[in-house]
Amino acid sequence: MSFAQELRRQADDIFQAIFNHPFVRGIAQGQLEQEQLIHYVKQDFEYLNAYMRIYGIAISKSGSREEMAVFHEQIGFILNSEIHPHQNFCRVAGVQFEDLQGFPLAPSAHHYIRHMLTVAHEGSLGEIYAVLLPCPWTYVEIGQRLLAEVKPTPEHPFYEWIQFYSSRVGGAAEAFGLALDRWAETSNVLERRKMKEHFLQSCQLEYQFWEMAYRLEEWPVR
């Protein structure tokens, strides 16, 4: 079992909790409130902006063009492709995607972004792979599971979202997983422990992101 596969095994309870989360079940059933979809898009837009900035930090720590190319490709993917599932949510919510940009971060999104930025600034390239991997990995598994379970037709409200994440983000998960495995082969015990901690915390924060959107989380004092 590879290092990444072992991390996935250790995170299985978190993945299962994500699959069972009421927001994810709402996608499956085509039943989510307008405010929940809007809150998700507002927060995910800012999250993905931060995600791309972390790619930039990773490029600065890369030792080869091959490593740089992985992050460069993923920046283009977010800019040009990952807007489509956001637009699906916006159409269902009856709002314009452009009107949901530039909003303050909710606590859980703020925590998740700061977690990744801290690792990116202070950690190795291997630690960056570990902290980033749960995002594409959880989403591709959600998409594939919902595709198999729901078998959505174009009439399903979230047909495009399910189709996108069942087929379009697997490349990032595979690339980061393979890179993490290669890095782990020459890492010492301390660095592997750090990579495990970063990975598992990102998994927990993926769950918390869904919870934030479902419960319309805001800061406690306005």
Question: Could you describe the 3D structure shown?
Answer:
α2 packs parallel to α12, α3 crosses α9 and α4 runs antiparallel to α5. The termini are far apart. The radius of gyration is 17 Å and the shape is globular. The chain is built from twelve helices and no strands. The protein has 222 residues and is an all-alpha fold.
Regarding quaternary structure, how should these chains be classified? single chain
Number of strands: 0
Helical residues, percent: over 70%
Measured distance between first and last alpha carbons: 48 Å
Major β-sheet annotation: none
Structural class call reads mainly alpha
In percent, how much strand structure appears in the residues? under 5%
Which series of helices and strands comes N to C?
A: HHHHHHHHHHHH
What is the C-alpha radius of gyration, as a whole number of Å? 17 Å
Short description:
The protein is an all-alpha fold. It has helices at residues 3-10, 12-19, 22-29, 34-61, 65-80, 83-93, 107-122, 125-132, 134-150, 159-167, 170-185, 189-214.
